[in-house]
């Protein structure tokens, strides 16, 4: 059974997601014309998109009300994005490599959990996972 959230419940996650997309568009503009941006804008734009989408996803999950295991996976993914954002924002910090390594580890763990089918709950269509229903009589 599909749960479709009404617009009022999705408004804040969608708004934050739109701001995240806008920051990514600005990041691409920086790539094309870096001289029109202030110094350090690239670090802030990259971090903003990652952090905003992490928060938007957590807010989305809070209104979606998934099972505890799905909440764990959402926290895992959001934490990975936040560590990646920290690495973008402070690339020269002593802990930058650690932030990046933690993000990589969490992303790899998240995808691994998808591959092994954990948690064994309903499909998470919000991250475009593909599931095929078996038809009667097929092997």
Model description:
This protein is mainly α. It has one domain. Helices cover 67% and strands 0% of the residues. The protein contains four helices and no strands. It has helices at 7-32, 41-64, 68-89, 96-116. Helix 1 packs antiparallel against helix 2 (41-64). The longest helix is centred in the N-terminal third of the chain and has 26 residues, at 7-32. The two termini are 24 Å apart. 24% of the residues are buried. The model has no long low-confidence stretch (mean pLDDT 87).
Strand content: under 5%
Number of strands: 0
Number of domains: 1
* Overall pLDDT level: 87
Please, how many helices?
4
Helix/strand structural class: mainly alpha
Cα gyration radius (Å): 18 Å
The succession of helices and strands, N to C, reads HHHH
Q: N- to C-terminal separation?
A: 24 Å
Proportion of residues in helical segments: 55-70%
Can you summarize this structure?
The chain is mainly α.
Descriptive labels:
single chain, flat, 139 residues, mainly alpha
SSE map:
Elements: H1 7-32, H2 41-64, H3 68-89, H4 96-116
Helix pairs in contact: 1-2, 2-3, 3-4
